[in-house]
Specification:
266 residues; mainly alpha; Leucine-rich Repeat Variant; 2 domains; 2 strands; 3% strand
Length: 266
């Protein structure tokens, strides 16, 4: 019944009504992870309808409501088969500011849309083999690294950074080929190391010596999440094989402050 009502309003196309009905749906199903099989077709159609709304010029608040419901629906693997297309993936990439043409992250009002789009991509990539293949075709790993560089040293966008890192971890977990791309072509090791150094306020006193302000404030839960996601992605990038481990140890680990791991558990 919820899906029928939401689908009717979404197809009608009035942004204010769409936002209200989808916000109600999101509030009701925020903690839903198991769905009724009998409503599967309705959920597929609702997903398709939401993607059609997202290509329109609608208010930011309506975009967020659409993406929140899409994120909830994408927990169900079965409904992703018909909606996981290159066109729909590109819609989410555009909303997440993952296109190379997007030069900066200046509009704070857009941040909730970026975060929700990244959350949707995390679910869809994890639950859909087609999305995983499209991620390679769309060069998603490179786009994520580009977005991370825009986030560097800007703590007020930690949510964006955290879900970017989570998606990067998922890609490197599901596709071993991406690990090599991250290591060499995308310079993932120094990028992830810099993120960790920034999170822990580490300063280098010499080429191989670092200093930490132990009297500084503890990491916030948000900063801790970012550090954990960065460590997970870093693990995938560096532990591909013994040969890679040896190479990274020689070329990169000398610059990686291993006391980060101890700090993360303090």
């Amino acid at each position: 019944m919820d899906e029928e009502r939401a689908l009717y309003i979404v197809r009608a196309g009035e942004a204010g009504a769409i936002e209200r009905v989808l916000r109600d749906y999101s509030d009701k199903h925020r903690a839903t992870f198991k769905f009724e099989p009998t409503d599967e077709d309705k959920r597929k159609k609702l997903c398709e309808g939401i993607f059609k709304v997202l290509i329109k010029d609608i208010p930011t608040t309506c975009q967020v409501s659409c993406l929140e419901v899409l994120r909830i629906l994408s927990r169900d693997k079965k409904i992703l088969v018909p909606v996981t297309t290159k066109e729909n993936m590109q819609i989410l990439l555009r909303l997440a500011k993952l296109n190379e043409s997007d030069d900066s992250l200046e509009k704070v009002s857009e941040f909730p849309v970026i975060v929700e789009s990244l959350k949707c991509l995390c679910n869809i990539v994890f639950n859909s083999q087609m999305a995983q293949q499209l991620s390679l075709e769309l060069n998603l790993a490179a786009k994520l690294c580009n977005l991370l560089r825009k986030c560097k040293d800007r703590k007020f966008i930690n949510d964006i950074k955290c879900f970017d890192l989570r998606l990067l971890f998922l890609l490197s977990l599901l596709h071993t080929d991406i690990r090599s791309q991250l290591r060499y072509e995308l310079q993932g090791l120094p990028l992830l190391t810099q993120i960790l150094e920034s999170a822990f306020s580490i300063k280098w006193t010499d080429e191989y010596e670092s200093a930490i302000d132990h009297n500084g404030p503890p990491l916030s839960p948000q900063e801790t999440d970012c550090a954990i996601e960065a460590l997970k992605a870093l693990f995938n990038v560096t532990v591909d094989s013994w040969k890679v481990h040896k190479e990274v140890r020689l070329k990169g680990y000398s610059h990686l402050p291993w006391n980060l791991i101890g700090l993360g558990h303090s």
